[in-house]
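Deliverable D5.2: sample structural annotation.
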Amino acid sequence: MAGMAYKALVVLREQSEAPEWVFQQFIDVDRQTTRNDAASKEINRLLRQLLGPECPTSYGFRHAFTTRLRNNDCPKESIELLGGWTKSVSGRYGSVQVLDKLRSYLHE
């Protein structure tokens, strides 16, 4: 899944009309913040649609994701970047090389 998600992100990034953000609809440009509640709500809606009403939530996936990164000795700064807990995401996601390095933490 990590490899497929990475490839999808690269394609989305290349096709994005606003290259600073792949999912512009979840960004408050004026405040330079992410609309986390809106993103979580949409992800949970899609998960229920694909997996049924008793499926895990995005919250559960996010914590499993963080645990996997920690178990792979991913530095705290990279965990925060990958998890969306940092405000400098736009500057750090600017190159494929950075994505390649971050992707390396997702493989066991």
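Annotation notes: The longest helix spans residues 36-51. Residues 2 and 8 are 10 Å apart (CA to CA).
The annotation will be released with the project's public dataset once the embargo ends.
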